[in-house]
Every structure is written in structure tokens, then in C-alpha cells.
């Protein structure tokens, strides 16, 4: 992206704050942030494929995300894709509160650097990262929330959409919420487009 992002990425890659995760990870998945990204997606944590590739959302959930983004006219390459945790939890278990707390400064700094107009929180871990540890997705999803100056739209994780299948409620909700988030972006800045 740019020099501050690269410096931050190097610090994230060197992080060993969670000793269990640092010992079991293959690669740290820093996340991706194309210059000028106006939309950010925040997931939970890398899975097996992401851990092996060092990139976020490269597995089945990522493929679904790419399809849904394309449906609403957005290229994945224009979107910042980040996670609450940068290291894979063993067996894809849910991140522990201490791990989320250890990793929190990285995502805070990433969001400050990217400064997206809208951030979509994918699933409960990301939603709770923004809205608090007791939040339920049902209570908050599909609406815009302002949190510490950030515009956040919570929705289902693509893995939930895959689990419940093509006729399931999570896929319809995720599709609708991504479309809603894109409408909130407003027109792009012609100067930024060069
Ligand atoms: N699930 C996530 O939450 N993040 C990824 O990067 C991949 C799958």
C-alpha cells in the first residue's frame, strides 16, 4: 500500500503476543489494503488456507465474498480486507478474548491508516470487536452504526452463508447488507481517481 502500511505490516508479522498462535501459525495474515480503499471488510481470523497463503479470505468463504462483491459492482482488489486476529487459531476455534485484546491495536492502526468510509463487520467476532462483547448479531445487523467515528455495518460471516446454503437467511442478509454498505459509500472522489 504505502510506507506506513508496510511498516505496520512488518510489525504485525513479527508479533508473538499470543504464544500459542505464534507457535502454531504458518504465516501471519496481515490483511490487504489497496490505496484509496473506501470500503473495508473485517472478518474473524485466518483459516487453514489463509494461514498457508498469508492472504485473507482465499478459501471458500473468500470466493463467496468475491462473488457477492462483484454482484454489487465492487472489485475485491479495491476493498481493504482485514481480520480481528492476524494468526489462525488452532482448528479454527473462536478467538479467545485475550487474543482479541492482544491483536486489537493492529486492527485499530490498520483502520486508522486505511480510513475507509464504510466498514463491514463480517460475523459475530468482528461485530463484537466494534460494538462490544455482549452484542448479538440479530440485534444490530443490517444497520449503520457509528463507532469511534467509524461507520460500521454488521452482517453475517460468509461461512454462515455457506453453512446455511443458497436458500438460507444468512446469504440473503449478507448479500443485502453488502449492497447497503456500497450505497453508503457515495460517489468516488474524482481527484482521488487521478
Ligand atoms: N474467515 C475469516 O474470518 N477470515 C479469513 O481471512 C478467512 C476466513
What can you see in these coordinates?
The structure is a single chain. The protein has helices spanning 3-13, 19-24, 48-53, 60-71, 97-114, 123-131, 137-140, 158-164, 169-183, and strands at residues 39-43, 80-83, 118-122, 145-147, 150-155. It is an alpha/beta fold and 194 residues long. It has a 5-stranded mixed sheet with strand order 2-1-3-5-4, with helices on both faces. Helix 1 (3-13) packs antiparallel against helix 5 (97-114) and helix 8 (158-164) packs antiparallel against helix 9. The two termini are 16 Å apart. Uracil binds next to loops.
Share in helix: 40-55%
Helix-strand pattern, N to C? HHEHHEHEHHEEHH
State the domain count.
1
Please compute the radius of gyration using only Cα atoms. Answer: 16 Å
- CATH class assignment: Alpha Beta
CATH architecture label name: 3-Layer(aba) Sandwich
What order do the helices and strands come in, and which of them pair?
Layout: H1 3-13, H2 19-24, E1 39-43, H3 48-53, H4 60-71, E2 80-83, H5 97-114, E3 118-122, H6 123-131, H7 137-140, E4 145-147, E5 150-155, H8 158-164, H9 169-183
Parallel strand pairs: 1-2, 1-3, 3-5
Antiparallel strand pairs: 4-5
The chain binds uracil.
List keywords for this structure.
single chain, 194 residues, alpha/beta, Uracil-DNA Glycosylase, subunit E, five-stranded mixed sheet, 45% helix, 12% strand, binds uracil
Short description:
By secondary structure, the protein is of the alpha/beta class. The chain contains nine helices and five strands. The site of uracil has 10 residues, from loops.
